[in-house]
Design a protein that fits this description.
5-stranded antiparallel β-sheet, N-terminal domain of TfIIb, 3 domains, alpha+beta, 5'-3' DNA helicase activity, 24% helix, Dna Topoisomerase Vi A Subunit, Chain: A, domain 2, binds zinc ion, TOPRIM_DnaG/twinkle
Length: 384
Amino acid sequence: MSVYQSLRLHRPLTQSLFPKLLPRTRTYAATTAVSVSPRRICTVSCHSVAHATTTVPSPPDGGEQIVDDDIFDAPRMKMLKQKMDLLGIKLDNTCVPALYHNLRCPKCKGGRSKERSLSFHIISDCEFAMWRCFRPECGWAGRVFADDMELDGKVSANAKPYGQTTEKSLGLEPLGPQLLAYFKERLISEKTLSRNAVRQLSDSDDKKVIAFTYKQNGLLVGCKYRTVEKRFWQGKGTDKVLYGIDDISHASEIIIVEGEIDKLSLEEAGFQNCVSVPVGAPGKVSFKDLPPREKDTAYQYLWNCKEYLDKVVRIILATDNDQPGQALAEELARRLGHERCWRVHWPKKDESSCFKDANEVLKYMGADALKRMVENAEPYTSAD
Ligand SMILES: [Zn+2]
């Protein structure tokens, strides 16, 4: 067992970890350190414990420890940030390596008192990040390595399985006026939002976060979050399944779209037999042969829904009208069988552009127009 595998995070954070983990970052003499803003290591969004002198010993030369700005552009740090983002842990530039930070836990949100209960640490060379929520009711802990292709399996093992998760335990609440207005502007009705159990994250911040609940057989199996500024992330432990899978359990004809809001849009046009892919479209179509099921990681959600999809006779692909959307349609058709697939063509918006997706058509042309477009889907051809 490596030294890192034996590391555990505790509350209170003990100094015992530091002799092993103390960074070999640059240190400056006190005279040169005056220009360093204290905000660098302690802000509202990432409450660092670095200012607690008991937890961070001074470098031996008595200088103040600062961290190079370049660290945030380093490939490992970038990779860690991306991975943490997927887990719902938001890092900003104050979350410097080698220090401990108290963050908001994405699993329990810090409970009723909303304390920053997640002790978070990136080791000094950015090899990995680790964390533990010190609220006993939660205890979420894990670790990810920058260089691994996959998130560390231990992360999932430590996370609460979604089968036992409820909307309440995720901190979800009914949509408030702000987000209802956001959806109204997109012509998504409260009835549709309610039937699809669209929620919001309860949070004291005024930035509202939409929570698309993923359900299978009526059970919560995952959650995808989206801010109104179009930032997405997935709840930890989320099953890779299509969004709205229960809506196609008895369907012989289905529609696949590229986003949750497009699924809701099609419901406004009268189609409930619609599912959305859970992740974004690929940049381009792969030229390689289809990988075997177990290696087809980017499309695991299709394999996980195989029994639903196998019995479908006709599949209408209504992905976005851009290059990634077309690449997604092709990748789906490759896996589902071109002969079963049909394609919706989004109409021209003006001389130079086309409508982008189902929601845009709903918004600018109305539900009837959207319905007609789906009904006029054409047999899929790869040359699309
Ligand atoms: Zn927690």
